[in-house]
Amino acid sequence: MRLDRLLSHSSGLSRNQVKVFLHNGDVLIDGLPARNSGLQVSAHNRITLEGVELVWPRDYYVMLHKPVGYVCSTEESSHPLVASLIAHNWASGLHSAGRLDADTTGLVLLTTDGAWSHAVTSPRRVCAKVYLVGVKHPLQPELVQRFADGVVLKDDAVPTKPARLELLDPVTARVTVHEGRYHQVRRMFAACGNRVETLHREAIGNIKLDAELPAGQWRELTPEEVANV
Ligand code: URA
Q1: What's the whole-model pTM score?
Q2: What ligand 1 atom has the least distance to the C-alpha of 183?
C-alpha cells in the first residue's frame, strides 16, 4: 500500500495534511524519516506518526447473496453495484473475487485483499464453482458426458475443462466448473442447443452460500472460510 494512503486511512488526515507531516520528518519507517508519499509499505514495516505507531488496517472478507439486477463491478454502470448492498464504512474498498452476470443470483465473495482474490480466481488454481441451473428445453442424459468431455464454446477454440453435470429434474441441473470464462455456464448450455433461464451460484471452493442469508444480505466470512477456500 502507498504510504500516504495508509497514513490518511489510519489517522483520518487528508492527503495534503499527510504531506506536511512527511515533509516535516514526523513519519518514521522502521525508525528512519520517510518523505516520499508514494513509497510502497507493507505490514512488515513499523510506521510511526509523531511517535505513535500506526495500526495496519485489516482486510475484510465478505459473502454476499447477490440478487438479480446487480453487477460485480467497481465502476459506474447502468445497474446498481453489488458493493452498494453492503452498508459499511469499509465497503468502498471491496472488490469481488470473480463475477456473476447481472441476471445471475447467489454467492459472491468480496474482499479488500488483492492477494486472496487472486488466489480464489487464479486459473492455475482449481477452485470449483457450483451453480444451480434452470434451462428452457428438457435436459438429455447425454449432456452429462458432453460436459465431462469439455464443450467447445462459440468463438472459443479451446474446449472447456471437464465439468460435472447432475440432472435434478427435466429442466434443472447442478453444474460444477473449474474455470471462470466469460458467461461460461450460459455459453456451455447454448453450445449444446439449450438456453439458461435461471442461474444461481451455490458455492466457490469450500465456501457455500449461507442458507440463512436471504438475497441482498451479506456477512463477513469466518477465519476458517478465509483460510480454507
Ligand atoms: N456463468 C455464466 O454464464 N454466468 C455467470 O454469472 C456465472 C457463470
Answers
A1: 0.83
A2: 3
Q: May I ask the CATH architecture of the domain 58-125+211-229?
A: 2-Layer Sandwich (3.30)
For domain 128-204, give the CATH number. 3.30.70.1560
Identity of residue 132: L
pLDDT over threshold 90, residue 27: yes
Q: Which CATH number fits domain 3-53: 3.40.50.620, 3.10.290.10, 3.30.420.10, 3.40.50.150?
A: 3.10.290.10
Catalytic one among 59, 101, 156, 210? 101
Question: Looking at the DSSP assignment, which residues form a beta bridge with residue 2?
Answer: 40
* Percent of the chain that is helix, strand, coil (3-state, to 5): 25, 25, 50
Mean pLDDT of 204-219: 96
Answer yes or no: is pLDDT of 109 > 90. Answer: yes
CA 100 / ligand 1 centre spacing (Å): 6
> DSSP code of 83?
G
